[in-house]
Amino acid sequence: MEIEVRRFYSNLFATKQSKATTIIPQQTKALPPFLPEEIQHSLNSFQNGKAAGEDKLSADFLKSCHSSVHKLLANKFSRYLQEGKVPTKWKSSKTTLIFKKGDKENLENYRPICLLPILYKVFTKCILNRIRKSLEEAQPVEQAGFRRSFSTIDHIHSVQRLLEVGREYQIPITMVFIDFKKAFDTIEPTALWESLKTQGIDSGYIKLLKECYNDCSTTITPFYNPVNIPITRGVRQCDPISPNLFSACLESAFRRMSWPHIKDDKMTTTLPWYQIRAESNTPTIRRRYHLISKLHK
């Protein structure tokens, strides 16, 4: 079993690209140091009662610590920020396989749950709070995944409205729902850093995140013997910044696509494509209201 686990996850987490360097612009100014208030704010965003990682620390414990501990963490994080280096322990994690359904001998039927060091998660949460605004500005208004003050309820209403108008005017509508297989686990790091660079993220934060992803590994213990798996692609599971990195990379991919027009043979008008994006099977429709107005005409 250990051999199968090593083969399956080594192939899943192995990059499919040859080594390519992403040219990151030189940092023009020093990044501001972290404040204790930033540490406290990040800690408050974590839920209570979650399992501890390899460092045996929990968010509950850090929340209960005196403010002097938060000040100490702020100094440590600021040093990592200036040096562009993070502790090696942060690059290792522990993964537990949870059976979902189907054949128990098929590893694809298991959900990997990763436990990361809580200090690493607080650190990346602090970085996310700083770069969130830039990431948000790069996202289209139609994107509701992993964003504050956005909801997929709007998209569900849009889909329902399109169907109602289509039935009312007897116009056939085709909708495509895409479920990306192993989407978070198959993002190439080169594409990730390029997307952050094109979306205006400070080069200092990109270099630091890149350092966090270098030489990462996870340990899986199916029975008694631990299996160490190197990770050279994908975003890290259970990392607070991972969903936002995924959205940034996905948006860069959509920007490079050329969306053709759909021409209806029975009508003289040309209806635009509407984009459907899948993140947890949630559709995102671009220019949906423009399409509804076309249907009304």
Mean pLDDT: 83
SSE order, one letter for each helix or strand: HHHHEEHHHHEEHEEH
Counting DSSP E segments of at least 2 residues, the number of strands comes to 6
Q: How many helices does DSSP assign?
A: 10
Radius of gyration, CA atoms, in whole angstroms: 22 Å
Provide key terms for this protein:
297 residues, alpha+beta, 4-stranded mixed sheet, two-stranded antiparallel ribbon, 6 strands, 42% helix
What is this structure's SSE topology?
Elements: H1 2-12, H2 36-44, H3 59-64, H4 67-83, E1 92-99, E2 110-115, H5 118-138, H6 153-168, H7 189-198, H8 203-213, E3 216-220, E4 227-231, H9 242-256, E5 262-263, E6 270-271, H10 288-296
Parallel strand pairs: 1-3
Antiparallel strand pairs: 1-2, 3-4, 5-6
Helix pairs in contact: 2-4, 2-5, 6-10, 7-8, 7-9
Plain-language structure description:
With about 300 residues, this protein is α+β, with helices and mostly antiparallel strands. It has a domain at about 1-10 and about 30-140 and about 180-260. Helix content is about 40%, strand content about 10%. It has helices at about 1-10, 35-45, 60-65, 65-85, 120-140, 155-170, 190-200, 205-215, 240-255, 290-295; strands at about 90-100, 110-115, 215-220, 225-230, 260-265, 270. Strands 2-1-3-4 form a 4-stranded mixed beta sheet, covered by helices on one side. Strands 5-6 form a two-stranded antiparallel ribbon. Helix 2 crosses helix 4. The chain is globular and about 65 Å long.
Short description:
Helices cover 42% and strands 9% of the residues.
